[in-house]
Design brief:
The protein is α+β, with helices and mostly antiparallel strands. Helix content is 30%, strand content 8%.
């Protein structure tokens, strides 16, 4: 008996169908992978929230404040939280890619932080260590350079609406194709609120801060105000 072989036309049809199926399934797999990364990022933020709550408990209800005006930057606020994140790196050292720094500080979708921000993906709302009056008088430059005022410790109990006030969030839009920070209406990111829940939001969904951006650093009314 002779075995019938595939014709060239049949092979081309099989290849075409396979290519179509692959084109349909790859985006699905990519979305599923990103959903997993978003979930890991949300878990990271919850752990950071727990660390801040523990810090506040140890410091008479005060939120992290080292007197550093740029504490909101990830590479800065991580130092007072080090004991609560089981990290004993030396203050001022860079991100240790060998693993001594906790991976909880890095969003798995963030390709920018490892090169620019010592591997820290998240920012800490500056209204946690500046009073509403101080925030109202600060310029945008004051948050990264300029001549900012001396930080004033704020209490955790002064947060008026914990479910609507952001505590920490992705600094760069790790979950979008753009790479912008809090001073932009573009993209989306995971936001950790003071009550401990994390929500993935478009930047444009947040309320506008005192400088005209959806920036949780500059929430109108500080800890007495709301971001969402």
């Amino acid at each position: 008996m002779r075995r019938r072989a595939f014709t060239l036309t049949e092979l081309l049809i099989v290849i075409a169908i396979t290519a179509i199926l692959a084109g349909m399934l790859l985006p699905v797999f990519a979305r599923a992978r990103e959903k997993g990364r978003q979930a890991t990022c949300a878990s990271n933020l919850r752990q950071i929230g727990h660390a801040i709550a523990q810090y506040s408990s140890d410091y008479d209800d005060r939120l992290p404040n080292t007197g550093e005006p740029y504490l909101w930057m990830g590479r800065r606020f991580r130092w007072p939280l080090a004991p609560y994140l089981a990290w004993r790196g030396a203050a001022g050292s860079t991100w240790d890619r060998a693993g001594s720094a906790p991976s909880v500080l890095a969003c798995p979708s963030d390709t920018v932080a490892p090169a620019l921000w010592d591997g820290t993906s998240y920012g800490y709302a500056a209204c946690s260590y500046y009073s509403p009056g101080q925030l109202a008088g600060m310029s945008l430059v004051d948050f990264y350079a300029g001549n900012p005022p001396t930080p004033t410790s704020q209490s955790l109990s002064s947060v008026a609406q914990p479910a609507r006030k952001v505590l920490c969030a992705d600094w760069i839009d790790a979950h979008e194709t753009c790479t912008v920070g809090w001073w932009s209406f573009r993209g989306r990111r995971n936001y950790l609120f003071f009550d401990g829940h994390v929500k993935l939001l478009a930047a444009a969904q947040l309320r506008i801060g005192s400088l005209g951006y959806p920036d949780p650093n500059t929430t109108v009314g500080g800890l007495g105000g709301v971001d969402y």
